Design the sequence.
């Protein structure tokens, strides 16, 4: 039986609706640069670069120190590799900071008859003519991770594209697709509720949030890591015109959400 938003708890709704944890990104950006970023929020000039036109507005904006963008894998890697953009990602945008970093989970529907990654890979090879794998947007980090797994393990998948992580995760829980890579903060609540299986985390080390889930390397597939995240940037200037923040960044782990985020540290 499938799971709908009406059946979900409040915590589930946040996971099912969303993909990338944009809420934590906004909070980190405001904490990291209290003076500059808060002014940007007040002026309405902070942009999330989910679309080409938003990134273009940031790239073309005046480098006044108050216009800040937040981008991710799709906006700042895939878009630049696949499309002819009306701006240059390297020339027109000035990197500020990596805000969040999080791995993905290799997930399957609950009734897949495998107990570990080795058994899963064997089952996928035996059924690869009919195995369906959800992708969270063409060229997304989750899509690339699935293609990478397909290549390393010698598999052949039938990819099913979705508009976002929420619909893909719902179909995985409902048994309409067989496999999905999804960001750990988004998928972990469903794993904990026993609605999907998690076989491995795509990082070099286990996540402190889910230490019981092995890395892909520990689970038997070497040389496979794939992490995603969000980063901030601003229009690039020929010379620095913005005031530097008096609050430097340090890293901390969010034990409840499963990602690493930047946070201000005191000036020594």
Sequence:
């Amino acid at each position: 039986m499938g799971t709908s938003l009406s059946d979900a708890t409040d915590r589930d709704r946040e996971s099912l609706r969303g993909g990338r944890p944009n809420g934590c990104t906004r909070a980190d950006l405001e904490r990291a640069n209290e003076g500059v970023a808060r002014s940007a929020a007040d002026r309405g000039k902070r942009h999330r670069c989910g679309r080409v036109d938003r990134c273009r507005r940031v790239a073309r904006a005046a480098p006044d120190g108050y216009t800040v963008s937040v981008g991710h894998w799709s906006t700042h890697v895939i878009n630049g590799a696949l499309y002819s953009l009306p701006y240059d990602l390297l020339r027109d945008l000035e990197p500020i900071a990596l805000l969040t970093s999080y791995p993905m989970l290799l997930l399957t529907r609950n009734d897949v008859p495998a107990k570990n990654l080795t058994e899963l890979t064997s089952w996928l090879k035996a059924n690869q003519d009919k195995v369906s794998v959800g992708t969270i947007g063409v060229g997304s980090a989750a899509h690339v991770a699935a293609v990478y797994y397909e290549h390393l393990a010698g598999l052949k998948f039938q990819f099913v594209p979705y508009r976002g992580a929420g619909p893909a995760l719902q179909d995985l829980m409902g048994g309409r697709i067989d496999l999905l890579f999804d960001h750990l903060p988004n998928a972990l609540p469903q794993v904990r509720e026993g609605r999907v299986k998690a076989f491995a985390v795509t990082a070099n080390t286990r996540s402190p949030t889910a230490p019981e889930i092995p890395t892909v390397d520990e689970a038997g597939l070497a040389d496979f890591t794939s992490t995603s995240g969000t980063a901030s940037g601003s229009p690039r200037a020929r010379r620095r015109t913005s005031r530097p923040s008096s609050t430097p960044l340090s890293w901390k782990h969010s034990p409840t959400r499963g990602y690493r985020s930047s946070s201000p540290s005191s000036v020594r």
In short: The longest helix spans residues 141-153. The chain has ten helices and ten strands. Residues 16-101+228-264 form one domain.
